[in-house]
Design brief:
Chain B: One of its GO terms (molecular function) is DNA binding. Chain B: It comes from Pterocles burchelli. Chain B: It holds the Pfam family CENP-S. The complex is a heterodimer. Helices cover about 35% and strands about 5% of the residues of chain A. In chain A, α1 packs antiparallel against α2. The longest helix of chain A has 16 residues. By secondary structure, chain B is mainly α. Helix content of chain B is about 70%, strand content about 0%. Chain B contains four helices and no strands. The longest helix of chain B has 30 residues. The chains are: A mainly alpha, B mainly alpha. The interface between A and B is medium-sized, with 36 and 31 residues.
Chain lengths: ~150, ~110
């Protein structure tokens, strides 16, 4: 395919220029093959900005045109996330496995009504000296039955 | 890691889980009252479990940060590094604690 041929020739030239920026040839290739233009009919992908509900947010929230962008979602495929996805060169991290485990746990709890199996399983292990008992003891079912 | 500690370690892990769950439910309750809403038990349980597992992440990172600084005692500086990617609330908090308690990282 002519496309991949062009891409490869573009890569070859990387060695010939030491600049951080694109060479005119690379720019031309980027502009023609990869750059998102209005005529493409696709929205520019943007990552969601972090926002802390319970803290003052010191990071400036830049107001971009929401309409023109496609905010990449980390939750719309949550039902796929209770199993490890394939990897290429980088293995899943412990953090990643923790995430998968909790997604699996949520999947198991999803259809439960009333008593929570997780709570029933660990409640016998609670030692009251381990926890800071709140003023209002009656607020927790755990406290009531413990 | 849990398995390597055997039966006793597993019991200890569950005890810790139970304590985290208890505290997490308490905090959820506060949020619920604040927001005028409710948490189902099935919603609080994963929050507790995430918290429990996040403690493992923090513990490992803190250990590595401390070792990276050629220290053996974890200090507030290491804790600040946990929050390096986000806003500086932790930095403010830690500075408050530092100024009131006079905690200083040992020299060199």
């Amino acid at each position: 395919r002519p496309l991949s041929k062009e891409r490869r020739s573009g890569q070859k030239q990387v060695h010939s220029h030491e600049n951080w920026s694109l060479s005119p040839e690379e720019f031309e290739i980027w502009d023609r093959l990869y750059r998102i233009k209005e005529s493409d009919g696709v929205k520019e992908p943007v990552l969601p900005q972090s926002h802390f509900e319970t803290l003052e947010n010191l990071e400036d929230i830049s107001e971009h045109e929401e309409e023109a962008t496609h905010k990449l979602s980390l939750s719309e495929w949550s039902i796929w996330q209770n199993r490890p996805f394939p990897t290429f060169m980088v293995d899943h991290s412990d953090r990643c496995y923790n995430f998968i485990s909790v997604m699996e746990m949520i999947e198991l709890l999803r259809n439960e009504q009333g008593d929570c199996s997780y709570e029933l399983e660990i409640q016998p292990h609670l030692r009251i000296e381990d926890v800071h008992v709140q003023r209002n003891k009656s607020h927790l079912s755990v406290a009531n039955s413990a | 890691m849990e398995a390597a500690e055997g039966e006793e370690g597993l019991l200890l892990t569950q005890r810790l889980r139970a304590a985290v769950h208890y505290m997490a439910c308490g905090l959820c309750q506060e949020v619920a009252e604040d927001k005028g809403m409710e948490f189902s038990k099935q919603a609080m349980a994963p929050i507790a479990e995430i918290t429990f597992r996040q403690c493992k992440n923090f513990a490992k990172d803190l250990e590595m940060f401390t070792r990276h600084a050629k220290q053996s005692t974890i200090t507030t500086e290491d804790v600040k590094l946990l929050a390096r990617r986000s806003s500086s609330y932790i930095t403010q908090k830690s500075d408050e604690i530092t100024s009131s308690d006079h905690i200083h990282r040992g020299k060199k």
